[in-house]
Amino acid sequence: MQNWHWLQGPVEDAARRLLGCELVHAVDGETLRVRIVETEAYDQLDPASHAFHGRTAANDAMFRSAGHAYVYLSHGIHHCLNVVTGQEGFGCGALVRAAEPVGPVGEMTRRRGRDGVQLTNGPGKLCQALAVTRALTGHDLTRPPLRLIERPALPDDEVVTTTRIGISRAVEAPRRFYIRGNPYVSRS
DNA sequence: GAAAAGATCTTCT
DNA sequence: GAAGATCTTTTCC
């Protein structure tokens, strides 16, 4: 297991630290790469989190140690990827809301059926482009096929902090982070 | 056991 | 701007 010390502190710090890092997914002979540009922080003390009601079979991956993947199915249609960031037994993680494609763009466009910013500017969209599904829940992100690559932390003036999107509880918490001016950041 | 809501996206008006 | 698609998980009787 690689040293995930940089993901260990408060989940807000981990979520901000994930901006600029890359996700690499090897699938069907292709190696799909994206760079994370938007995240949201969730933990078991947060009413908006899937971990809020305690550890269950469904959310078990969120309670594992930092560096695992937690993928859930949203509205029965879309997969959404989280990077688990805490210690074993404490449920928390960062939802990867948007990323920018690194390559090969053609292969991601084929999987998405859309191109341009529509490729990866939302949590469900980026999972479709990257071919990430629930089968990867609990996966160790140091190993193939899906790996997380650490990148240097961005300077503070490039990171914007806002309230989260698409939730109905704890709506005031400033736990959404994105790279200032990046075209792939989601809006709605 | 049944019902409702959900960390979304697309299409239509 | 609003609603539909579609299914898992949670909650309430």
Shape: globular
CATH topology: 3-methyladenine DNA Glycosylase, Chain A
- In CATH, what is the homologous superfamily? Methylpurine-DNA glycosylase (MPG)
Topology as a string of helices (H) and strands (E):
HEEEEEHHEEE
- Can you tell me the CATH architecture? Roll
- Helix fraction bin: 10-25%
What does this structure look like?
With 188 residues, the chain is an alpha+beta fold. It has a single domain, classed as Roll (3-methyladenine DNA Glycosylase, Chain A), CATH 3.10.300.10. 12% of the residues lie in helices and 30% in strands. It contains 3 helices and 8 strands. The chain has helices spanning 11-17, 105-112, 123-130; strands spanning 22-27, 30-43, 69-74, 78-84, 92-103, 146-149, 159-162, 176-179. Strands 1, 2, 3, 4, 5, 6, 7 and 8 form an 8-stranded antiparallel sheet that branches. α2 packs across α3 (123-130). The longest helix is centred in the middle third of the chain and has 8 residues, at 105-112. The chain starts with 10 loop residues before the first helix and ends in a 9-residue tail after the last strand. The structure holds a DNA duplex (13 and 13 nucleotides).
